[in-house]
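TA notes, week 10

Several of you asked for a full example with nothing omitted. So below is the full record: structure tokens for the whole chain, then the designed sequence directly under it. When grading your own attempts, check the secondary structure regions first.
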């Protein structure tokens, strides 16, 4: 349901002080989305027939739905990272997904969420960051735009990733085994894997993509996530040969992870600007693969479009 609060509307934007913990609902003529301020996480995405395209976050399987990954993607060697002469601890995928974002503004079709550094975050990530996340629906497309800003003066290294989990199978009557991910471009480069601790192994594996298609099967994920770190595509199409599909566009993120728990009814298609630590990594955080560095006052933008493509 839409966030409740004193209604004060200006140019179509609700500038009230809404309940900062209630989900925000936005809609178009094709889709309805709900976003949880906890982690600014997309929590539901339904078509006009109220069929949910997004995984439901069953905590007995995987409690996530579409978390935002910041300031790291994946895990750290030994659970800590080196920054100059100091070491700091960070849990898998960072802390943003567990933080309550403020709701900056809402309208019928858009909502903006914000997270800024606080004392707890400065203890593990000593930078005055700001995350601004905008969700906007336009017909059959949900656009998620995230700005990472450095509000301090020191250079700020960071990673960022999207982690949406879609229903597998999609709710359009096709079998789970008929689903695939079709890439925009040919993808001959090998894939990467992680070890039991979640660290990137040095081996490169022959790509499971054939003629631009990754045919989905549980066997692909017996060793956890598939990582494509030399990807050419900036969009993929997920679904089956019959029925609507989902197109994911990620122009700003050069890595892609694909993951599920074998047998689970979801598939995560994850555009990343960053990756889990390689086995044995001991370098400075700024030298971690996929990390970008923002100068004082600098910003980085990462967009992801999710479009329901009717057959």
């Amino acid at each position: 349901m839409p966030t409740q609060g004193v209604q004060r509307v200006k140019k179509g934007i609700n500038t009230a002080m809404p309940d900062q913990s209630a989900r925000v609902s936005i809609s178009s003529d094709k889709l309805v989305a709900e976003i949880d301020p906890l982690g600014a996480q997309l929590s539901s995405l339904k078509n006009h027939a109220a069929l949910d395209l997004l995984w439901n976050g069953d905590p007995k399987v995987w409690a996530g739905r579409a978390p935002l990954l910041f300031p790291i993607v994946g895990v750290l060697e030994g659970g800590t990272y080196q920054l100059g002469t100091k070491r700091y601890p960070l849990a898998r995928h960072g802390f943003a997904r567990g933080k309550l974002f403020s709701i900056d503004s809402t309208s019928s079709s858009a909502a903006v969420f914000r997270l800024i550094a606080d004392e707890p975050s400065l203890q593990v990530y000593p930078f005055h960051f700001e995350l601004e996340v905008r969700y906007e629906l336009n017909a059959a497309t949900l656009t998620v735009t995230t700005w990472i800003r450095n509000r301090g003066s020191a250079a700020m290294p960071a990673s960022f990733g999207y982690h949406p989990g879609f229903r597998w199978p999609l709710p359009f009557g096709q079998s789970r085994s008929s689903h695939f991910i079709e890439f925009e471009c040919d993808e001959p480069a090998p894939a990467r894997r992680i070890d039991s601790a979640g660290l990137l192994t040095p081996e490169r594996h022959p790509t499971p993509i054939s003629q631009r298609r990754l045919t989905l099967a549980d066997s692909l994920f017996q060793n956890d996530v598939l990582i494509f770190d030399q990807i050419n595509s900036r969009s993929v199409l997920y679904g089956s040969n019959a029925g609507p599909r989902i197109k994911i566009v990620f122009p700003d993120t050069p890595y892609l992870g694909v993951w599920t728990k074998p047998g689970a009814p979801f598939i995560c298609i994850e555009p990343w600007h960053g990756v889990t630590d390689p086995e044995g990594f001991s370098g400075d955080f700024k030298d971690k693969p996929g990390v970008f560095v923002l100068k004082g006052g600098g910003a980085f933008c990462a967009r992801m479009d999710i479009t329901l493509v009717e057959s």
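The longest strand covers residues 299-309. Use that as a sanity check on your answer.
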